[in-house]
Amino acid sequence: MPISQDLLEILACPACKAKVELKPDGSALKCVECRRVYPIRDDIPVMLVDEAKIEPEGADEQAEQKIE
Question: What CATH number did the domain enclosing 23 receive?
Fold first, then answer.
């Protein structure tokens, strides 16, 4: 079961309090400001700063180009 839109609207990055968005592959939530990526395990977002990885800028665009 994917993350609901209602849940996405209330979730915020615990590090900087900015909005998070679902990654295109649905595997994680990415902060729009600090680019931390929080994993989703068993349909539950793990919103812990220690569990997040910082994604390099432009990584989403590179992934989309590989798909095409």
Answer: 2.20.25.10
